[in-house]
Amino acid sequence: MTPTPPAPARYPIALIGAGALGLSFAARLARTTRVALVARDAAAAALRAGVRVGDAHFMPEAWAPEAAPQAQWVIVLVKAGDTAEAARTAARMQPQGVLSLQNGLTEPVLRAHCALPLTAQGITTAGAFRDDSGVTPSGDGEVLMPPGFEGLAVLLAQAGFDARVVDDIVPARLAKLLVNVAINPLAALFRVRNGELLAPPYRIWLDALVAEAWPVLHAQGLTLDEAAAHARVCAVAEATGANRASMLQDVLAGRRTELEAITGVLIAFARREGMAVPTHEAVHRLLGLLEARPR
Ligand SMILES: NC(=O)c1ccc[n+]([C@@H]2O[C@H](COP(=O)([O-])OP(=O)(O)OC[C@H]3O[C@@H](n4cnc5c(N)ncnc54)[C@H](OP(=O)(O)O)[C@@H]3O)[C@@H](O)[C@H]2O)c1
After folding, report:
1. Tens digits of per-residue pLDDT, 227-255?
2. pLDDT tens-place string over residues 202-231
């Protein structure tokens, strides 16, 4: 086995969050560039021994947050509830830019805890899941980011990602949020795989969630018309039909979900616009009760 050369003074790229997506991105990027992977804590030391990612054994250059090295670009891939801490770590790494690829709307929290001018949220449609044996990437997907991140897009593209800068990231972010507010909470509540939401009895609630979310997100800058919004949600539910949504996985594992960054954000937008979203409020209340239950 070739020993890892000494850490560079400044890594070209770092990822914060050594979970499903962080490990999957790191393993792919490590084929073409040096990558620092920041784990939650001492887990970093264990990760250095390696982990299965896809069919390969990957030995990340893993770091604990307090020892995080400098990096040119930082990508945040922790769950939404851990954003503030990850943002503080990112700021200490003195990067040119910090990009979140998290689900939900986390940019306000990221910016509140990381004062760098180039701090923003993009989107990815790439996927990955983890189990006891390691991480399995599930689909290549796109990575979209706002202007200013051209250098990061080049590094990702060199590693084979379909990564690019788009002039206006807001519509893409809102389209991702639309899919998430419709599929994630419903799958978690009824404990069903994504594809089952397209058929009775769940379909009526899926349609209601989309019908309520569309005008709210349209008012924020979603460019899809209402029919296209419905079609997008159904297409994703179909394409990911066999998957368990991340919120369902979190509920089943007794972990905190990303409910507040997803449904919570939609409800806050609706209140600001004076629009009614009763089905989302019901789903939010029910999942909130589930999360608050004793473990
Ligand atoms: N997985 C997907 O297919 C997918 C697709 C698109 C978007 N996303 C989004 O990407 C984000 C990450 O998802 P994921 O599935 O990779 O989650 P995950 O498997 O739970 O990974 C998150 C990792 O971040 C670690 N972490 C938490 N706080 C940290 C901190 N302060 N510093 C460093 N590491 C920290 C966690 O450690 P612990 O294990 O100790 O908690 C965990 O290893 C989420 O917002 C998710 O919605 C995921």
Report:
1. 999 999 999 999 999 999 999 999 999 99
2. 999 999 999 999 999 999 999 999 999 999
Quick one: average pLDDT of 39-46? 84
Alpha helices in 129-202 (DSSP H): 150-158, 170-190
Distance from the first to the final alpha carbon of the chain:
43
Residue of 79, 92, 145 with the most ligand 1 atoms within 8 Å of its CB, for mutation: 79
What is the dihedral angle through the alpha carbons of 138, 132, 66, 6, rounded to the nearest 10 degrees? -80
**Which pLDDT value is given to residue 74?**
98
For ligand 1, say whether the CB of 79 is within 6 Å of any of its atoms.
yes
**Domain 10-165: what homologous superfamily?**
NAD(P)-binding Rossmann-like Domain (3.40.50.720)
Is residue 102 within 6 Å of ligand 1 at its C-beta?
Answer: yes
Fold: same for 10-165 and 170-292: no
CA 18 – ligand 1 centroid, Å:
7
CA distance 56 to 274: 51
Strand pairing report for 61-63 and 56-58: unpaired
CA–centroid distance, 249 to ligand 1, in Å, is: 12
Q: What is the mean pLDDT of residues 83-93?
A: 98
Indicate if ligand 1 lies below 6 Å from the C-beta of 80.
yes
Q: What is each CA distance from 49 to 17, 25, 189, 209, in whole angstroms?
A: 17, 18, 37, 44
Burial (0-12, 13-18, 19+ Cβ within 10 Å), 6: exposed
User: What residue spans define the domains of the chain?
Assistant: 10-165, 170-292
The second-level CATH assignment, the architecture, of 170-292 is Orthogonal Bundle (1.10)
Whether 176 is in the pocket of ligand 1, judged by its Cβ within 6 Å, is no
What's the gap in Å between 274 CA and the centre of ligand 1? 33
Question: So what's the pLDDT on residue 159?
Answer: 96
